[in-house]
């Protein structure tokens, strides 16, 4: 366990403004990237990332100092993203009539390969997406993803395989041919 | 190797972040078009995601987060129901010389909502009681007015002195009903007599639809021996009834 993290957390719990700011700056890239990949919307990602840090500050006294801090924060972020996606799913979605009736050639196409994969990622189920983003964005192992999502490794493997295959099928359906 | 086994193997390789494939896998991919396409797509996904980097918010994110956190903690601190334990202890230490302990303070804090609910319930009961009393008063007044109107109906002429007992009132009602019955009976009898045309002269009972046929079974040409005394008889009956009714009215 990194001693600097413990000191930082203790300083945050004592109400030190500089330590709190340092804490946020240290992990904001990690949390914000996960949120953007999960939600596919930058403003929503900023809101959810802020919620993640607020929750982390409130629950910081419950953090087990024996365990590393990063997976603990990733667990909070994954849960908040899932909650946000569920709430978004309950909200009515405005119908884009132009996209439905315009000819195929007028529909905007992804600018690059990364956007193509990101669009395919957003069509996955929440669990598959969560698993895929944690595995590739943070370069985690299946075991680490299982610990963060608090699921068995076998479940994570199945979700990951399905996520890969569905993205590949989606790319194939769109006629995308990798070079 | 089957296509299913091929997919299982390459998925496992990607799970381990390994890009080296065995000759067996490569051989299957070279002869199976669908597996070759799948392998290409999975390699493409792996290559794209490998370039995923960290993204940063577009504004001073840390300052915003700390500002929101301080605002939320301030709101919790000012709220009396979520007062921290340290603040409660400080209040207790100050209040101890005045025999006000922490338990009493907590009890008083907890009794606030209960007291408000009790007061609200008492006010609601008072309002309901007042409304019920007002309604009962209105009903009593209406009942009294109804009784007075019954008395007025029972006494056709304005009475000089209203009967005070219920027995007298019932008697008045009975006399009134009897007089009505007498009047109805008398008029009915007179009508029968007129119709039969035994006593009255033919000119008083003739129908507007004069004809030569018989009227009520009695022809007009029938002789009427008592017709000269018919009017006198009717006047005598009327005066008798008037005398009876007048005497009854005066007695009441």
Chain pair sharing the greatest interface:
A-B, 37 and 34 residues
Broad shape of chain B: elongated
Tally of contiguous helical segments of chain A:
9
User: What would you call the structural class of chain A?
Assistant: mainly alpha
Tally of domains of chain A: 2
Helix and strand composition category of chain B: mainly alpha
Average pLDDT, all residues of chain A? 84
Give a topology summary.
The complex is a heterodimer of chains A (179) and B (252).
Chain A: H1 3-13, H2 17-39, H3 42-58, H4 69-90, H5 97-101, H6 113-121, H7 126-137, H8 142-149, H9 153-173
Helix pairs in contact in A: 1-2, 2-3, 2-4, 2-7, 3-4, 4-8, 6-9, 7-9, 8-9
Chain B: H1 3-15, H2 23-31, H3 33-50, H4 61-78, H5 85-95, H6 102-154, H7 166-196, H8 202-205, H9 230-251
Helix pairs in contact in B: 1-3, 2-3, 7-9
Question: Your description of this structure?
Answer:
- The complex is a heterodimer of chains A (179) and B (252).
- Chain A has two domains: 1-95, RNA polymerase sigma factor, region 2, helix turn helix motif (Rna Polymerase Sigma Factor, Chain: A, Orthogonal Bundle), CATH 1.10.1740.10; 98-179, Winged helix-like DNA-binding domain superfamily/Winged helix DNA-binding domain (Arc Repressor Mutant, subunit A).
- The radius of gyration of chain A is 19 Å and the shape is elongated.
- Chain A is built from nine helices and no strands.
- Chain A has 179 residues and is mainly alpha-helical.
- Chain B is elongated, with a radius of gyration of 56 Å.
- Chain B is 71% helix and 0% strand.
- The model of chain B is unreliable at 82-105 and 204-215 (pLDDT under 50).
- Chain B has helices at residues 3-15, 23-31, 33-50, 61-78, 85-95, 102-154, 166-196, 202-205, 230-251.
- Chain B is built from nine helices and no strands.
- With 252 residues, chain B is mainly α.
- Classes of the chains: A mainly alpha (179), B mainly alpha (252).
């Amino acid at each position: 366990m990194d001693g600097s993290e413990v000191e930082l957390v203790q300083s945050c719990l004592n109400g030190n403004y500089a330590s709190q700011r340092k804490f946020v700056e240290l992990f904001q890239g990690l949390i914000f990237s996960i949120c953007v990949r999960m939600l596919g919307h930058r403003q929503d990602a900023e809101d959810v990332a802020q919620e993640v840090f607020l929750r982390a500050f409130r629950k910081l006294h419950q953090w087990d100092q024996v365990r590393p801090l990063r997976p603990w924060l990733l667990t909070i972020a994954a849960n908040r993203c899932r909650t946000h996606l569920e709430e978004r799913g309950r909200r009515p979605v405005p119908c884009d009539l132009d996209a439905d009736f315009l000819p195929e050639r007028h529909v905007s196409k992804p600018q690059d390969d990364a956007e193509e994969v990101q669009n395919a990622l957003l069509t996955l189920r929440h669990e598959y997406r969560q698993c895929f983003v944690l595995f590739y964005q943070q370069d985690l192992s299946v075991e680490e993803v299982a610990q963060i999502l608090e699921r068995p490794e076998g479940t994570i493997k199945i979700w990951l395989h399905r996520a890969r295959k569905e993205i590949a099928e989606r790319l194939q359906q769109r006629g995308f041919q990798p070079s | 190797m089957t296509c299913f086994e091929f997919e299982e193997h390459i998925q496992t390789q990607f799970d381990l972040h390994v890009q080296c494939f065995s000759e067996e896998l490569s051989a299957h991919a070279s002869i199976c078009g669908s597996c070759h396409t799948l392998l290409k797509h999975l390699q493409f996904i792996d290559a794209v995601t490998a370039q995923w980097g960290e993204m940063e918010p577009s504004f001073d994110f840390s300052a915003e987060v700390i500002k929101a956190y301080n605002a939320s903690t301030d709101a919790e601190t000012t709220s009396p129901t979520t007062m921290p334990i340290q603040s409660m202890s400080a209040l207790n230490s100050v209040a101890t010389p005045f025999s006000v302990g922490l338990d009493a303070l907590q009890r008083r804090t907890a009794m606030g909502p209960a007291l408000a609910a009790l007061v609200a319930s008492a006010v609601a009961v008072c309002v309901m009681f007042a409304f019920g009393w007002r309604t009962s008063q209105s009903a009593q007044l209406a009942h009294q007015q109804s009784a007075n109107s019954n008395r007025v109906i029972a006494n056709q002429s304005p009475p000089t002195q209203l009967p005070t007992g219920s027995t007298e009132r019932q008697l008045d009602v009975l006399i009134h009903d009897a007089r009505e019955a007498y009047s109805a009976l008398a008029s009915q009898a007179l009508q029968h007599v007129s119709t039969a045309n035994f006593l009255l002269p033919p000119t008083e009972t003739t129908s507007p639809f004069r004809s030569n046929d018989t009227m009520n079974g009695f022809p007009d040409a029938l002789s009427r021996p008592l017709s000269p005394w018919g009017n006198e008889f009717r006047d005598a009956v009327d005066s008798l009834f008037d005398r009876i009714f007048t005497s009854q009215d005066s007695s009441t």
